[in-house]
């Protein structure tokens, strides 16, 4: 009898001190589970005489009923306490201003927004988006783009080279998105009209340079593409992107291994302190490079320069984002500062459209 009293006291004490339903379940298993203390006592009844079984069985079953009742009550108490705690935690103070909806709290990074703006503008002119890997071969990043081995322009790109593979080839982090143009020309037959946005990498870091940055390049290949078409495409892009009715552009001779002739493009602007306004003023600002695709590049990509020709251009997405939205330093783009993102970021549902406005 004393052992039942001791077991009763211990079990009821454990039930009353269980802090949550998981702890209470452990007490139940310890008492009433297959190998529980009370279940073990019930298992001994079969070895007793009828008179002993009758007396002992009544005592054990009475203890079992007490434990079951205590478990049920404690479980109800724990559920009530959990509900009360939840109600207190979820109390709404109607005197507070309404909280902003969750879908309005996040912000789209300016780079993502500008990529969407670029895609919208060029899609309206019939361009599709082409993509390629960040890790490229030397052949696609340099050789097929008319960079001869040992050419100083390879060093000018401050390239991140990887360790040689088993075949001795050194892969690299692409220094421009031009390898995507190569891949497109190798995979598609003209006419080709694509833009190639994406990440690029160079060993450079200051106020206007970061080791990882973003570029967008464009490529047109067909039988009749010429400089007039290139000029029109760039003018229409600048008008739409900077949201001005007209722009004046200046094309200056330059050199790129993959284009001939090559040009740097300046856009008319007016500087007013830290502000730059396009489509007016007497200043000029360089924004991109362009040119006619070099005949050697066409040949390297399996195209006949006597049959087709084309033009290409490239610009820094981070740079034009800075120009459009008045940012003075490139480095915060990649510092993950939530305060900066809340200031310069875009609301998630503000999709850029030519009809509704690119910048929301």
Describe this structure in words.
By secondary structure, the protein is of the alpha+beta class. The chain has two domains: 2-89; 106-344, 2-Layer Sandwich (BirA Bifunctional Protein, domain 2). Helices cover 42% and strands 20% of the residues. It is built from 13 helices and ten strands. It has helices at 2-17, 21-32, 37-43, 50-89, 102-105, 110-124, 138-141, 152-156, 178-187, 227-242, 295-300, 317-325, 338-344, and strands at 128-129, 135-136, 172-173, 192-201, 212-222, 249-256, 259-272, 275-278, 283-293, 309-316. Strands 1, 4, 5, 6, 7, 8, 9 and 10 form an eight-stranded mixed β-sheet that branches. Strands 2-3 form a two-stranded antiparallel ribbon. A hairpin with a 2-residue loop joins strand 6 and strand 7 (259-272). Helix 6 crosses helix 12. It is elongated, with a radius of gyration of 36 Å. The chain starts with a helix and ends in a 16-residue tail after the last helix. 27% of the residues are buried. The mean pLDDT is 85.
């Amino acid at each position: 009898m004393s052992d039942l009293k001791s077991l009763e006291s211990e079990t009821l004490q454990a039930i009353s001190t269980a802090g949550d339903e998981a702890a209470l379940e452990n007490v139940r298993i310890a008492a009433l589970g297959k190998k529980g203390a009370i279940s073990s006592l019930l298992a001994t009844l079969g070895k007793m005489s009828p008179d002993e079984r009758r007396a002992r069985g009544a005592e054990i079953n009475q203890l079992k009923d007490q434990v079951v009742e205590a478990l049920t009550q404690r479980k109800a108490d724990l559920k009530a306490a959990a509900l009360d705690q939840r109600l207190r935690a979820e109390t709404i103070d109607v005197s507070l201003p309404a909280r902003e909806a969750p879908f309005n709290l996040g912000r789209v990074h300016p780079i993502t927004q500008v990529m969407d703006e670029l895609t919208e503008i060029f899609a309206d002119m019939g361009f599709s988006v082409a993509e390629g890997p960040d890790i490229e071969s030397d052949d696609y990043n340099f050789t097929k783009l008319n960079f001869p081995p040992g050419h100083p322009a390879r060093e000018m790109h401050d390239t991140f080279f990887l360790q040689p593979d088993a075949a001795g080839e050194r892969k690299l982090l692409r220094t421009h998105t031009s390898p995507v143009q190569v891949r497109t020309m190798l995979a598609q037959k003209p006419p080709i009209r694509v833009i190639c946005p994406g990440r690029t990498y160079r060993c450079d870091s200051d106020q206007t340079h970061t080791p990882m940055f973003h570029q967008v390049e464009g490529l047109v290949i067909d039988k009749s593409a010429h400089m007039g078409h290139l000029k029109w495409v760039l003018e229409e892009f600048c008008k739409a992107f900077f949201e001005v009715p007209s722009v004046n552009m200046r094309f200056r001779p330059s050199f790129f291994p993959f284009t001939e002739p090559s040009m740097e493009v300046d856009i008319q602007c007016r500087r007013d302190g830290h502000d730059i306004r396009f489509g007016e003023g007497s200043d000029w600002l360089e924004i991109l490079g362009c040119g006619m695709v070099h005949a050697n590049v066409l040949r390297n990509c399996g195209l006949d320069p006597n049959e087709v020709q084309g033009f290409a251009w490239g610009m820094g997405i981070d740079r034009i984002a800075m120009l459009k939205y008045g940012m003075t330093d490139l480095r915060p783009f990649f510092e993950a500062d939530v305060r900066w993102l809340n200031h310069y970021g875009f609301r998630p549902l503000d999709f850029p459209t030519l009809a509704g406005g690119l910048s929301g």
